[in-house]
Amino acid sequence: MSHRPGFSLAELIIALGMFSALLVASLGFYRQQGRAFNSGNERMTLMQNLRYGVDALEQNLRTAGIGVPVRQPVVVYAGERVFAFNANYATNTQDDLFAVYHEDELASTAVNALTPDRKITLPATSFAYPDSAYSDGGGNSQAETITFFFALDNTTARLDDYALFRQVNDGTAEVIARHLLPTGRPFFSYYLVDPDASGTPVSEVPPSYIPAAHTVPLHGTPADTGIVAAADSIRAVRVSYAATNGLEGERETVRELTRLIRLPNAGIATERTCGNKPLLGTSLVAAGVKATETTPGHVALNWGRAIDEHTGERDVLRYVVWRRPHSTTKWGDPLVSIPAGADAYSYQDFTATVAQKYVYAVAAQDCTPQYSSQAVSNEAEWTY
Predict the structure, then answer these.
(1) Where are the domains of the chain?
(2) What is the pTM of this model?
(3) Any idea which fold 284-376 has?
(4) What is the mean pLDDT of residues 36-60?
């Protein structure tokens, strides 16, 4: 009887058992490697999300103040979740040398300043802006309003999940980063110039000053002082938030980040090159206003903006007003100067003597300084 080569049943069972054990071990190893890979990928995604948001903030915020004319504020609104500022950040014009970035596809509404007829309520606030038009000397300012804000993310089931958004002027807000969580600090906190602090030129803005909003239309005017001008002194923004991988329970990973971002262009006035002698091109109207129980008698003045050299306040800094009694011909020293930058101008002369007739004059002044020719008013007086 001959024997054919092969495996016995016992040997085959042993071989299958060993193969099964090896297969189980291999599958366990691959599952472990897969979990490690997914965990690493989730951590990488989390860190990218964490850093991308703050990198976008730093790239944008460091341009705050670039190309902003003297009467346009740099910081518009500084809140715990919202920060809005002005900058000539982008342009769609090839020969614009003053913007930071160029992109042909940008809409014209995204590359220049908002005007009162395009007033908006800043996202996640009740603050309306602007109340004035801003000129860079050749027309409407090219510094657009950029708003970053943290808002609850309604695309997830979590109630503490925020997203970071960016909005330019009145455009659609775009998502910068998701799965963000608050920390023990506000999302945004601020540091300002503190001239009274001994040895500490920069200090944190007190919570009582937040939100700091530019409620005075024209930056640098007499009313733009005190607490309403707190936004003008901001020189740095601290960003604080945490990022999650979006998972729950033991699989969730959370990392915190904080970064202090300087605003190197805040507080630096935009230089102007003065052209020819300014042109006024407007009339001055004076009218007596009788005293009432609530308002003293006075003379009200009204005039329009200068046409200057190219149909606009190209390099006009202010309007200077004079007053003289109607019986004299000498103007003497100016009565008052009014900052430029508004659509129309008015002034109430409460120092005028009752029943005294006056004549007023106004002239535009540029940065040379040169005066335009005067516009002279009619005679006016106030009575009881």
Answers:
(1) 64-262, 284-376
(2) 0.61
(3) Immunoglobulin-like (2.60.40)
(4) 70
